[in-house]
Design a protein that fits this description.
alpha/beta, 256 residues, two-stranded antiparallel sheet, 7-stranded mixed sheet, 11 strands, single chain, 7 helices
């Protein structure tokens, strides 16, 4: 059986799009904002379909009815009534995940529109081959200032994901960033996600990077797979970033 067939996917898409709307909740869910005339979530779902993933769960929250109405019954949905962090969002989806799945791929609904199918396939296959508990998709970013960093030891092994607020001056020089796309061993994930505590950074939410710390503290294997194409990861948090996403997607579509 292919590794893809043994992998469920959780897309995190409950956001309000506040930063896209000058600090106020948007009129539509964040993942329904359009890139080249299509809701950004459509691109992600197309990529997953092309890669062969069958069990896909979309975590929705803010104005979730709009997402369900647009995409219909082709996918499974989990409701995150309160936004308490990425870890909490994954917890909300647990009961929807195929219990036979050996792996769980978690991706963000607002920055995954540009992934190529092979990138996600490679991440999952490397995760399975290396028998990792956690695998992370990373990127060597030319402007990492506002982004979380991958921290490695002298042997090149991942030992932490650190948010920008807590980086040391030396760590700020690191250009390898966390894309917030993860692959977990399913059994390990459902056991350890229950151990998450409110994060010391940000707003005290339950966040997925803290699972990396749990794995490190327990001496468990963590892998990283680096994207080489900068245009595969485009964060969309502000109107300016959405404009950039439209420009990049327009060029990609024109070159097909």
């Amino acid at each position: 059986m292919l590794v893809i067939d043994e992998t469920s996917v959780i897309i995190l898409g409950a956001g309000k799009g506040t930063r896209l709307n000058e600090g106020q909740p948007s009129e539509i869910p964040k993942i329904m904002h359009k890139i080249c005339s299509r809701p950004m979530l459509e691109y992600t779902l197309d990529t997953l379909n092309s890669a062969g993933f069958k069990d896909v769960i979309v975590v929705i929250g803010y104005k979730y009815e709009m997402v369900q109405e647009h995409f219909g019954n082709n996918y499974k949905y989990a409701i995150q009534k309160e936004q308490k962090g990425t870890g909490h969002a994954v917890m909300c989806a647990e009961q929807k995940v195929d219990p036979s799945s050996k792996n769980v791929l978690v991706i963000q609904g607002d920055d995954s529109a540009f992934y190529r199918p092979q990138t996600l396939i490679d991440l999952v296959e490397k995760h399975a081959k290396d028998r990792a508990k956690v695998s992370i998709l990373t990127l060597d970013h030319p402007s990492p200032k506002e982004l979380g960093r991958i921290i490695r030891n002298k042997d090149g092994q991942v030992i932490a994901i650190k948010e920008k607020e807590v980086l040391t001056e030396e760590e700020k020089k690191i250009s390898e960033i966390n894309t917030a796309t993860y692959c977990f061993e399913a059994g390990w994930l459902w056991k350890n996600i229950k151990e998450l505590k409110p994060s010391a950074t940000g707003q005290g939410e339950l966040i997925l990077p803290d699972l990396v710390k749990i794995a490190v503290d327990n001496g468990q294997r963590i892998c990283a797979h680096m994207i080489t194409d900068l245009d595969e990861w485009v964060g969309v948090n502000t109107q300016h970033q959405l404009d950039i996403a439209n420009e990049i997607m327009a060029k990609r579509l024109a070159n097909r």
